[in-house]
Amino acid sequence: MTTEDTIEGKVVKIISSKEIVINKGEDDGIEEDMEFIVFEIGDVIEDPDTGEALGNVEHVKARVKPKHIQNEITIMRSAEITTKKTGIYGITNAGETKKVTKSIADRPEDEVDDKVKEGDLVRQKL
User: Fold this and answer.
1) Looking at residues 65-92, what average pLDDT do you find?
2) Which domain holds residue 16?
């Protein structure tokens, strides 16, 4: 699949903390096994040596997969998995632990908004 064939759309409704609706569907080529990113366009990045604009940072907010595909819209469900400790204290301490991503840069939390909103961009993840 070439980049011309990449499906792009927008979030048109928030259903719950785990489900959204996008404005693309079966008529646009969406299939059950596809994965998408929800993102917003950030700052322009310039080459420090030439000053040339290299493009905008895409701030990825979520990864989603189709849950229910209709002709012109699709309900998407979060494709992000976290695990929590599942053991019951006193009976067993076994269980999975939550995976946490290590910080790679210092940036004030209030500058980055990870919440998906209506109007955010959606693109098929290739």
Assistant:
1) 78
2) 3-100+113-124
Q: Do 73 and 23 form a contact (C-beta atoms < 8 A)?
A: yes
Residue 52: inside a domain, yes or no?
yes
Q: How far apart are CA 80 and CA 77, in angstroms?
A: 9
Alpha carbon distance 79, 120 (integer Å): 17
Q: Kindly report the pTM of this predicted structure.
A: 0.73
CATH number of 23's domain: 2.40.10.410
The verdict on residue 105 lying in a domain is: no
Strands 19-22 and 36-46: unpaired
pLDDT on residue 48: 95
How many structural domains does the chain have? Answer: 1
Question: What whole-number distance in Å separates Cα of residue 104 and Cα of residue 125?
Answer: 23
| Opening angle at CA 15, ends 13 and 16, nearest 5 | 135
